[in-house]
Design brief:
82 residues; alpha+beta; two-stranded antiparallel sheet; 2 strands; Reverse transcriptase domain-containing protein
């Protein structure tokens, strides 16, 4: 089985609207995950939402004195990630 190159993987991620499903033992799945999680992190930075990445886990948090502000920011982050 031929594995995709970095340029082929990024092209397929950008052009497909549906999720790409690869078996967990395929080395490309780690590459595709890294590309996806970096995109999520960039969007969270733009929205000024705090996050922490460790391996394949992400923790997201937001602080404000106003609960509605927190809710609005997190919902905006969720919508921009779809």
């Amino acid at each position: 089985m031929k594995l995709p190159t970095l340029s082929n993987a990024t092209k397929s991620v950008k052009t497909k609207e549906r999720p790409i499903k690869l078996p967990p033992d395929v080395k490309a799945s780690a590459l595709l995950f890294a590309l996806y999680i970096n995109d999520v992190a960039n969007k969270l930075r733009l929205l000024k939402i705090h996050f922490a990445l460790f391996a394949d886990d992400i923790t997201v948090w937001c602080a404000s004195k106003n609960l509605k502000t927190i809710e609005r920011k997190l919902q905006k982050a969720n919508k921009s990630n779809k």
